[in-house]
Each structure stands twice: as structure tokens, then as C-alpha cells.
Amino acid sequence: MIGNRSIPINGLKNENNVIDISDDSSNGSLEEPQRSLSPSSEIYFFEGAEKRLAVFMSTSSSSGVQQPPDLRKITTDQWAALLSAVECRILSTISTSSGNSGLNAYLLSESSMFVARDHLMIKTCGNTKLLNCLDQIGLYGRAAGFDQIASIRYSRKNLIAPELQEPLYQRFDYERDFINTVLERNGAVHCFGGKANNSEDRFFLYTSSSSVAGGQHQHQHQHQYHQPKHFQSKCIDDAKQEMKSTMEQYKFEIIMEQLDPSAMAIFMENNNEKLNASEVTARSGIGQLLPGMMIDDHLFEPCGYSMNGLIGQQYMTIHITPEPDFSYVSLETDVPQVNYPDFIAKILRLFRPQKFMLNIIVPISAVQVAGDLFDAQFHGFVRLEMERTIIDNSTEMVYARYGTQHCCC
């Protein structure tokens, strides 16, 4: 069982409270649309969508640090104490750490955490309270030898039932204000989606960097995507070299919903076979998505699956909520792909969703990634939205949303 997986929702309002976004500005609305849940979900519901926090540390040249700062010095027990405030726990760990390189990966009762020398990423689902750890992260950073938080990215998809969350997580502007208050920032918020077909589906991203003069909002360049007539000459191999500097120079995430029950059956306890996690990883095809990875996987009771994968300094993580009424799968990795459309098609064949969204962070110089996605067609799917936004001086985010003719999009 993934944490408090069974959530009673007696008294839940079931009317369709989808907000009218026809007059939204390009920034989108930060209000959280609510969906009507099915009758069976009134008894049992789990929010698969994750809240995601990435924090990057730095040290000034005058800080007087004698030993190289390193977040990986923080012990598992210390991380467990931090995560208790989030209301999740560590299940297992793997590591590729060696010298200044490599990662420590923590599989959690609700998703995952990855820790590198100078940054960490925590991703938690359900009713976790991810932002409760902000203060402690700053303290741990100082204990590890850093003297400031250089930048932060906090993001999530819109939730199915935001009214079941703590008040802080019911609207993204509440989360933005909380981060700004705790860390004395004035970060920028980008809202992707919600502009086509009166869709409920959106993706929210908060960014803040100490390099922004005076703490002012970073200027946002958001627009519908148009294919560039000419690609820059910089090839993807050159872009990969730029990506190595931080985990957030390059990030691929696909979020899938309304998944084929037959594809989800292997992640359910009543799948007629008593498979362990490693057998599920192999039989489902997950183990072949990025061959050669060190894998840490877990099969939950009565259903659900999570995995962390590491290869050198790079990671992949997958989290699966297989219940038919609110099925959800997320896959995230920073392993660069030569052909992203082929990688996406491989994932779609494995999980067979009726709708999915992509959010991909790339160096601004890696324009071929966005161009390839613009040209890509995925069998049985129609692209509903596509946008690009420059999120800092060196990176942009590409967002796209797709659905089949049968999906509730």
C-alpha cells in the first residue's frame, strides 16, 4: 500500500466544477479545476499526480569551505527525518556515487528522491506535504558545506481532487506564495495547457534563481509552438555536453492517464500470478526502456508500482497508479535520447494510455529536440496543445498534450 492509499471522501462534491478558461491570458489560470469522480472512487481514491521539487545549491568563492561541499554526505537517517515532515518514508536506496559524480536514489513510500553533489530532486504523490521540507533542505545544504540555494524548480500537474489535499496544495498560487515567503524569493510561475477544448489538464512550473537581479520575476516567453524554418547548427551531442552541468539542464517527463486496464493488470495484486517487483519490471517491458540501468523497484499492496533507475550520473523513475477509475503513470529521466519521438512511442506501446502530456526541459541550443517533437505523429493520437517557454537564461520547456478520439481530454 502506498502510504495512506485508501482515502475516504464522504461528503465530496461531485458536480463538475471545471472553470471557464476561455478568457485566460497566456499565463493560464492557477485555479485548480475539479473533476467529477466515478461512484466507485467515492469510496476509494488515490492521487497519482506528483508534486516535484528540485533544489540546486552553490557556494561563494569567499565562503572559506575547507572540504568540497556535497549533499551526499547527508545520511539516510537524516533524509528520513526530513521526509517524515513530508509524510512519506524511505523504502530502499541505490547509488552510483563516486568522487564528485554519481547519484544516490531513494525509493519512497510515495515516489522518489535523487541526491547529487550539489542538487536534489524530490517527487511525491498522494496527499504528501512536499513543501514542509523547504526549511530543512536549507539547513542540510549548509551542513553539507553550501552557503546558498542557487535555484529552485517546483512543479506538478493539475490534481484530480485538489479539495482532498491540504489547503496549501489546492491552488498553485498558494504553493508559489508559500515558497516565496519561506525562501524570501519572488519566483516566476508558468502555466501550460488549459487553452484548448476547455481542458482541465494543465502543468504548473515555479522557477526561482538567485541570479535574477533584485529577485524580480523572470521574463516569460510563452507562445504556441511553430516549427523553426532553420535549425541551429549545434548538434545534439554538443547539447549533451551542456546538459551535464545540472540535473535540470535536461529533463524528460511523460504523464499518462486513462490507461489500458490490460496494460495495468500486471501492477495489480489480483493479476493471477504472484510476481515480485523484479519480475514485474522484466515482464512489463520497463527493464528494456533504458537498458543497462541499475534498477530499484517496488510492488505495492494491493496495487501500485515504483522504480528508480541509475546509470552513471543519470536517472529514470516510474510511478504507476493502476486503478481503472484514476489510472496514472509518470516516467521521468534525464538520459538524453537520440530520437525522442521513438522513445515516446516505445513508452506508449508499453502503457497504452488514452491521453498523455509531455514536459521537456532542454538547453535553448538544443532546438532539434523541439523540432522533432513538432514533426512527430503518434499512432492513434491527436496533438491538442503545444507550447514553449524560456524558463531561464539557458533552458526552455516544451509542453505538449495528446489524446485519442475516445479519451476524456
UniProtKB/TrEMBL annotation:
Task: Give any GO molecular function from the UniProt entry.
Answer: adenosylmethionine decarboxylase activity
SUPFAM superfamilies reported for this sequence? S-adenosylmethionine decarboxylase (SSF56276)
**Organism the protein comes from:** Blomia tropicalis
Query: What catalytic activity is recorded?
Result: S-adenosyl-L-methionine + H(+) = S-adenosyl 3-(methylsulfanyl)propylamine + CO2
What's the domain of life for this entry?
Eukaryota
Name the record gives this protein? Adenosylmethionine decarboxylase
Mind telling me which GO cellular component terms the entry cites? cytosol
Statement: the UniProt record of this protein carries the keyword Amino-acid biosynthesis: no
Give the record's keywords alphabetically: Polyamine biosynthesis, Spermidine biosynthesis
Q: A Pfam family name for this chain?
A: SAM_decarbox
Matching Gene3D superfamilies, A to Z?
S-adenosylmethionine decarboxylase
Query: Is the keyword RNA-binding assigned to this protein?
Result: no
Q: Which pathway does the UniProt entry assign to this protein?
A: Amine and polyamine biosynthesis; S-adenosylmethioninamine biosynthesis; S-adenosylmethioninamine from S-adenosyl-L-methionine: step 1/1
What is stated as this protein's family in its record?
Belongs to the eukaryotic AdoMetDC family.
GO biological process annotations for this chain's record? spermidine biosynthetic process; spermine biosynthetic process
